[in-house]
Amino acid sequence: MSRPQTKEALTLLIENNYDDLKGLIESSSLEEQESHFQFFKDDKLKETHYKRDENLKDVLVHLYEWQCLLLSFIKALREDKNTQVSFLPAGYTWKTYPKMNQAIKEKHQKTTLEEAKRYLDDTHEKVLNEIECLTEESLFEKGHFKAINNTTLLLYVTANTSSHYVFAYKKYKKHLKERKAHGIKE
């Protein structure tokens, strides 16, 4: 799918991808939602997230925390478009963010699946509200914000909403297929 060119198209993409994810989750049993991913220890899957996320809750808190980062980033940019704020929290870089992702998982070990769902619903709505307050220029023009001079805010928004929802959808769908392939019933 091509990148959205308007706020309306962006909002629609985000909502559609979120609805797809929520629909997949809601169409599965609570046992499926709470079960450990079957591919968690699969050595053939090299991506870090396959080793990190053990269950749906881990995926949802990952999305939630990244949306919290996005909301903080947007707030800082809206307060001063010339700010040099970093998207990532202090102590992390784009080379070390996998450590941050692991810290997110560890932070949420006592978070329940139901809490994770509520947290994500909350940040999802907050992000949509922030998008509504942004101008088309602030979302789509390169160089509109000093902190992201070489790219657009759209990139950060889509990476932490619609694209992240697709990532989560595919991962959870893979989990459900793996359960079925191994003969695990609800």
TrEMBL record:
InterPro entries: DinB/YfiT-like, DUF1706
Name of this chain's protein: DinB-like domain-containing protein
Lineage: Bacteria, Bacillati, Mycoplasmatota, Mollicutes, Acholeplasmatales
